[in-house]
Specification:
alpha/beta; six-stranded mixed sheet; 19 strands; about 375 residues; Purple Acid Phosphatase, chain A, domain 2; 3 domains; about 25% strand
Amino acid sequence: MKLMHLSDLHLGKRVHEVSMLPDQVCILNQILDCIDTEQPDALLICGDVYDKSIPSGEAVAVFDDFLCSLAQRELPVFIISGNHDSPERLAFGGRLMEPSGIHLSPVYNGSIEPITLRDEFGPVHFWLLPFLKPSHVRRFFPEEAPGSLSDALRLVIGKMPMNRQERNVLLTHQFVAGAATCESEEISIGGTDCVDAEIFSDFDYTALGHLHGPQNVLSSRIRYCGTPLKYSFSEALHHKSITVVHLGEKGTLDISLLPLTPLHDLREIRGTYQEVTARSFYVNAPTEDYLRITLTDEEDVPEAMGRLRTIYPNLLALRYDNTRTRSGAVIEAAADVQRKSPLELFGELYEKQNNQPLSDVQRTYLLGLMESIWED
């Protein structure tokens, strides 16, 4: 069985206040072309269909067109909600769409039933597990009261009526421990939204959404496909693609990638103002790309943004890297703060103020407090 794995479309997203919808329409059309060429048996979309829980009318219209195109191809499609989606809004009309092969994850109600397809090796069961937090699970299992997200998902998966002798594919939208993140993703405080990869060990393939960089976690059986487009400059070096999963008989799995070409790439360039405006510098470069330019001039260039946009019309951001900006290690310090969780930052502040680190009891208390505030 051939599956195509997508996630994190983030329809309606704006990058530095520029709408990405034209780029998203282009990449969705490219995905449809790939579907026509590859003829997969199913398409998996693993959350963050929209960039906001209340998406714009334009974003909804784009997704509506995409779903109609998929339904016309009579392709089974499995879609779950992510942390950016409203599960109730995304699930609207789901029961009406099922006869067309469009399967939307319902709002979690304490149980999950599989949707089954068949090939020459027998049944393949698809489990649609939307983005969850411990509080979502406690509502239905108050007596078991899972404390961490790992405990909550372990409980949810344990309640699934799964036949482990047959092939099972899980769609879910979570942050799995050991995966590499970038600045465009929302990772909660203190690592409270991190789950253990071993939770998914019973599945023949776990199709993940949430992280924007394509990557395997532990093995190719647990995989983030990444976003189809670059949504921040921390993703500038990513190679975006569709993950194609070739699911054979029980225990057999192969992964291949279909590269995607954006309408506008998102990249960074660096140099002095004189260097980046020299014709020899940009004459063979795609000047229509979305750009962040880092100028290394020691003095600020007057009206640099406007002047640079005469050459680079899609310039999104401008910054300087020189003696002034590096003084006090401003750039490095800012990046270091971005990499650390609030729990780590609080621990550093506490140690500076009290000349001793947080105790294990204090750390546990703070982690619980932060998790409670985050969920509220």
